[in-house]
Design goal:
4 helices; mainly alpha
């Protein structure tokens, strides 16, 4: 008769480690959401926050004497954010759009402040979507 228990060289669970304290493999299917389950407002605001954060870093707002200051990249990100916020404002409601507009305006003013030669009113990043931005 053969013994039904696994030998020392194999495991009853394929891929399982012999170490007793090895972490179990994560169940990625359980950890992720289907994109169809994510409301549009959540997708839009998440993208907007990423654009806000990236623009702030490129403006050097992440810390004093930031080594990441790149106004050309910041201009692109702010313009993309302005287009997104302007186009989606009626779809995501004022509750979600108002803080995004405030953040956008703050970035536009920070860009003007950081520029050696400030753009004319209405010519700054994103101002073709938002109109001229004043302090």
């Amino acid at each position: 008769m053969t013994d039904a228990t696994p030998s020392d060289s194999t495991s009853a669970f394929p891929g399982a480690s012999d170490a007793p304290d090895a972490p179990a493999a994560p169940d990625y299917d359980e950890m992720t959401r289907d994109i169809a389950d994510v409301p549009a407002v959540e997708v839009i605001t998440t993208v907007a926050v990423h654009l806000l954060s990236a623009a702030a870093v490129n403006l050097g707002l992440d810390k004093p004497d930031s080594e990441y200051k790149d106004l050309d990249e910041a201009r692109k990100l702010i313009t993309a954010l302005a287009g997104l916020v302007t186009a989606s404002a009626t779809e995501i409601s004022s509750f979600h759009a108002a803080p995004l507009r405030d953040g956008l305006k703050s970035l536009q003013l920070a860009f003007r402040e950081a520029s050696i030669v400030p753009d004319e009113p209405g010519q700054g990043p994103g101002e073709k979507f938002t109109g001229p931005v004043y302090a």
